[in-house]
């Protein structure tokens, strides 16, 4: 199935938003063009409604009821509005580091090994700062940044945009990759909170609960979560999830880990290169492209990082010295892996004098945590995270150089929405959460000389001075962040260990740095619930 991997570095020559999707006309060789390219309307660019609003009330909201085709960042609300595709290109470039690092986080941090934590953005309210992320959180942000105030930015209309399907197939792929790494964690076994037309509220839902109204192949019984667990059931798989090519489950999972490291581990790859540590991904067969998948491979034993957020006094100094020495020798930053490049050269080979590490060398991942009531503003809203100065005009924020990530909430007005679940969620003040990784930009700042080191004593004061957040509606209108009751922004960190010949390992233990956000509007202060 075709998909758009918005978290992987695009092929050389392409952009962070695929040019083939972002141009109104494309050239193709058709069966009747005598092997010569002909220009056609791009079916991936937009969908034309024909007729527009065929039945009165089908598109009850404006301006959607006036737009004759799907739009991204529409110029206005009139019937003659145009897409501003450059806005999509710029916004996706601005958000890329956040998307890539977020996917790496939820694939590798042990806090996301359970389906409930990985899958959805409902805030757990368990004082666990390491469970704010989810695939749903990243999914929402991609919607908002590709659509702006257009169709992709509104879940009621998003599926009309052809981009929706490339995006959602990638979410399906990310889930399949996570399943390969966590094969024993899947469905949630708990009571139904709201119920459906066929399930009573409070009834226990398990992996064998009927997924009504979807009949399985027999036509007589319904699909269950157990029945749809594998994409192979539906005769498809992704490049990374072709398990039949490997003789053992262990070799298959090692291949998937190598693929995750190659595609999404850009930040940890840079650290390992600077430290002279070689990852197992350099020597493992990786099922990233069909041409790259091989059936054999060996599993390199990994040593897990020790528990606890604090490291021994020497560990951070050793890492700091390694980084500083590398910077002095003008080491070039390493971008995320590109399909046609040699992964081993990207992550860096150890020097001839280096020996296999017995204890992992550790670096610290810094992350912004955000939680907020989903429906508090009765419409979609976004929390923009900045590192550095930014313009006062909200219209510039989606593509500002200092924008490092966006948290998106698809809120609804309970008085007007036809979404029954949204009405119930609003009544119980449903809280949702998300994460914006900081380490990619902090590493760039260190390499440029704008940050003295990546140790806590340097990073936290820097964040206190330079980290900012603002709230806007989908149309760009700014909302006073202090008036969004329940919004809390915080900074946390966790250690990641790197060993020679292994994969980076997240400790799973987090430290909260309330001194960054304390005393600021919507910022977490010391003593607040985490």
From TrEMBL:
Signal peptide start-end: none
Keyword entries, A-Z: Copper, Melanin biosynthesis, Metal-binding, Monooxygenase, Oxidoreductase
GO molecular function, one term: metal ion binding
Residue numbers spanned by region Disordered: 329-355
Residues in Tyrosinase copper-binding domain copies: 161-172
Cofactor dependence: Cu(2+)
Reaction equation(s) it catalyzes: L-tyrosine + O2 = L-dopaquinone + H2O; 2 L-dopa + O2 = 2 L-dopaquinone + 2 H2O
Pfam families, alphabetized: Tyrosinase, Tyrosinase_C
EC number: 1.14.18.1
Broad enzyme group: oxidoreductase
GO biological process per UniProt: melanin biosynthetic process
Presence of keyword Oxidoreductase: yes
Membership in a protein family: Belongs to the tyrosinase family.
Protein's recorded name: tyrosinase
Lineage, broadest ranks: Eukaryota, Fungi, Dikarya, Ascomycota, Pezizomycotina
